[in-house]
Structures are given as C-alpha cells and as structure tokens.
Amino acid sequence: PTADYATFISPKEAMSYLKEKGTPVVIKADGLAAGKGVIPAQSMDKAEEAIDTILTKKRFGTAGDRIIIEEFLTGEEASFIVFTDGNTIIPMPTSQDHKPIYDDDQGPNTGGMGAYSPAPVITEKLQQKIMDEIMFPTVQAMANEGRKYKGILYAGLMINNGEINVLEFNARFGDPETQPILIRMKTDLIPILEAIVDERLGQESIQWDERPAVCVVMASNGYPGSYQKGKGIEGLDKVQNMQNAQVFHAGTAFKNNHVVTSGGRVLGVTALGNDIKDAINLAYQATSQIQWEGAYYRKDIGKKALRR
C-alpha cells in the first residue's frame, strides 16, 4: 500500500497536474538526495516553489531530473528495518525518526535529527501485519523477478488508525534509527551479516536488550542549509565515562590532534534507559556534555513515545 502519485520530468506538466489535484501534496526528487529531497507542500505557492527548486533550479542535481508528486498522507511515521538473505526475514526492533530540523516537527526536512527504539506506534499485531503484507511480499517479489535481495531492507511507513502506507524503501540501515537499534543488539553483528551472504539466516538467533534507547543528533548551525566546518568539539571524553551512553560519529574529522566538525549532522548521542523517559534523560545529559561553536540539536526527541 502506497500513496497515490505521478512522476514528471517537465515543470509545465507537473504544474498542470498540481493545479488539477490541489494541495496539500508531497513533492520528491526521484533520486538520492541525502534524505532532504522530500518537500511537504501545504499550499499551492509552496508546491510550485518545490517544483521550481527541484526541476528547474536543480537543487539536488541529477537526483532531481524527475520528480514525484504524491498524495499527502497523515498519521505517524515509523521505520521498520529487517535482515534478509532472500529467504528468511528477521525484523529488528522498531524505531521512529524525527525528520524536521526544529522541535514539534517544524521546519525543513533533514536526514534525521534523532530517533528512538522501540516505536510504541507499532504494536505486536501491527508488526505482524507489516511482515505479512509488506516485507514478505516485497522480498518474495524480488526473488520471483530473479533479483534475490540479500542485506538490510528498510521500510519507511506512515501509520494511521492501524492502516499502513509505505513511504519509501531503502537498501540500507536507517540513520539515525540504527544508533538506538544497534545499541540494543546483544548478538555480534558480523556473524549475522555473514549468514545473510551465505543464505543461512534461518539458522541464526538474534538477542536484543529489552531496554529502550534514544539517539539525539547534534548538528552544525545552518544545517540542512549551508554550515561551517572545522569547529573544535569538546566534551567527548566526558561521555566516554558515562554508563549506557555512546557517541556515534558522523560529520567529524581529525585535525591537528583534535576532533572537529566536517558535516551537517555531526554526532549521534545515544543512550539506553530502564524506560523511555530514563533513556531520553540520559541521552540529553550526555548531549549537554558536548560543545562546539554553533552546535544545535532538537530538545524533544522521544516525546511522542512518552505520550503513549
């Protein structure tokens, strides 16, 4: 199940379709755009601007040679990621990303400003439905076409009153969802990946920590737009000494024996807790220990889980 959509390479044809359908809509670059090629448009002006930005001004380069204009779906997003060797599918714990740059899901989309696992929006019953109606049929369809898929399969989902729509598939782990998922993984990852390659995943058992985890992404000021690089990062050693907290590096580099910023999303500060509230508190406690000029992070990661 997916949203209704149409694809275009011509700005004129896209505008014509837009006027016929009206807003709100979601406009997407058809290629890879570092997680920033999706533009929700609540108004006609915003939609026309998005078409112009992607197709005419080529903001995403060749990734925007074609656009998708999609039905605007409402509900709650969640990420569902599985291991598969093309025959067996083993789901990872559920997770939820936070795409917009600002608190309360405001502002432009990013690659992801934080995540938590598990995602309470996906109940046990809903998880089985996702496996039966989305993951198994997708893996089987690829095998039937002679393209047996082996690896990590990520489904981005929109959930509304128990109904599921697929927003996207990725042939990789999610970022930042992987951080709170893998910090909960007790089993060594490498033998699982080897079992996927050898098509013996069905012989493996994966153990997970029952405790929830939260990841807060620390970003450079200006992201997802332009930002400065080379800012010295302080406080990483303080988090190293904290129990149940870990820092995953993303946009960092080593310069003159010091860790500096080198990207938009710089660090994923991740923590395990006895419950989701405990995990949120520890993640933010760890985040507060780290500083650099222009560091920015959302202050509401995980709050949706607290409401359930």
Keywords:
D-amino Acid Aminotransferase, Chain A, domain 1, alpha+beta, 26% helix, 3 domains, Dna Ligase, domain 1, Glycinamide Ribonucleotide Synthetase, Chain A, domain 4, 18 strands, 308 residues
Report on the architecture of this protein.
- The chain folds into three domains: 5-71, Dna Ligase, domain 1; 76-203, ATP-grasp fold, B domain (D-amino Acid Aminotransferase, Chain A, domain 1); 213-306, Phosphoribosylglycinamide synthetase, C-terminal domain (Glycinamide Ribonucleotide Synthetase, Chain A, domain 4), CATH 3.90.600.
- It is α+β, with helices and mostly antiparallel strands and 308 residues long.
- Strands 7, 10, 13, 14, 17 and 18 form a six-stranded antiparallel β-sheet that branches. Strands 1-4-2-3 form a four-stranded antiparallel β-sheet, with helices on one face. Strands 6-5-11-12 form a four-stranded antiparallel β-sheet.
- 26% of the residues lie in helices and 30% in strands.
- It has helices at residues 11-21, 44-56, 124-144, 178-182, 189-197, 236-240, 276-287, 303-306, and strands at residues 5-8, 25-29, 38-41, 67-71, 76-84, 89-91, 96-97, 100-102, 106-109, 114-117, 151-160, 163-170, 213-220, 245-249, 252-255, 258-261, 265-272, 295-296.
- The relative contact order is 0.13.
